[in-house]
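Researcher: For the record, we're logging two predictions in this thread. I'll number them. Prediction 1 follows.
Model: Prediction 1, sequence and structure:
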Amino acid sequence: MIDLMSKPTAVNYTPHIALSAQWKVEADPAYKVVRAPQSEDFQIAVRTLSGQGQIRLRDQSDYLLEQNSLLLISRNQIARYFCSGNTWKFHWFEFQSSLPLAPYQNQLHTMEISAEEFRNINDCFAILGLNTAYSSLRASSIFAVLLTYWLDRIHSPQNADQSRLESLIGNTLQDLSVQHTVRELARLSQMSERSFRDKFSRYTGFSPKQYLEKRKLDSALDLLATTHLPIKEIAGMLGFADPYYFSRFIARQAGLSPEAFRRKANPVQPSGDPAARIDVT
């Protein structure tokens, strides 16, 4: 008899990418959209297939989007956008991502659209529109392929500091069970502590402490919601030697204790015959 079990002893962080909406637009000169700020911000990717459009930001700066262009930007930066030529054919993606996109945002990138990319764009649009139980997950998976494909192809100048930060995030910081000090991370990045804090914050949008706490929180909530692992074990997997400190951390960040969050994520279903519980009076 063979009885095998596999489970992680440490948590490797997987970036979160979730596509919330996709628009396929064929605009004419009458096309004009004004955007008001929203309480919840999203990341935007605009991929222009042909024609010409323009996006104006709240700081009054403009982007002219032409064939084969890609723009990554935060939604709440956008004041208005419109067709600035005879036509503007584009796909507009709204998504959330834990990837460090700051180095790629607010600049126009031009790259030819390959047949495979075009197929993925259309598949993503078709699947998201199915509105089935798993269509959003499937579309997000395809969009993750698109987004990482774009990032790989962007030809932006990359200095040594940015390369070292990417290596640090992609390798050293993947194992969340290991504790790191800013001094150690700065040394690994070959920077002073002050320079490391400043460049890390510009690259990720978070201080080193905030970045690690966010990753640990995301992983903790996922493990609490999707596994039956003991809370003490989850704490250890995320580098918390004291499970009570871990509980206080979750309560402070999520507003619920680990036990309460797990109950909320997995409500107990009533037992018995469902038909017998229907009130027909």
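Researcher: Logged. Prediction 2.
Model: Prediction 2, sequence and structure:
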Amino acid sequence: MTRAKQNKKASTITLDNVLSLIIFIVGIILIVAGIFKVYNLVGEARESRSAETLLDKILTKAKSVEVGEETEVTLQGFKHDTELLLVAFNKDQAKAPEKCFFNNCLCICGGLSLTSPEEIEKLCQEGVCKQSDTKISINSKKVIQIPLPYAGTPLGGYQSNELKIELNAIDIPQTLFKLKIKKPKENEVVIYR
């Protein structure tokens, strides 16, 4: 064989090897991305089912409380990636998630991206809600502090500003937690910590 034929054959083999390697790497990346996507979807579905189960337990306990009585219930939180809040919406409220219009609702909503009290219904639209015949009130204050950029002071220094949002909401932890449920009158329940 001449030297030119050997070099041409060697470059063809190298080009074939490089193309095979690139196709292999792209294939591995696609497989890993697919596995990651499926894992995230399974996690989200599990979190949603856990939230529904927790809401069912709270509403079942609330139905069993007699007028004028109060009870304490211990509940198991569940694994979640973001801060979750227990929020109530009543049918007479002007602002509520679409799934709660004309109904009383108890919802578990994400609270980390909250920047104003008016945004809670948007966050709950993406959360899990259960409807109830009973008017539900949350009587626990949740203060969310949002750091704002540093602002200059008259003396040239800097001070930190925070936006504080106060809501009637309860944190949903990942561990055991207790709620108190009281029924002041027929078809009305108050939930607090």
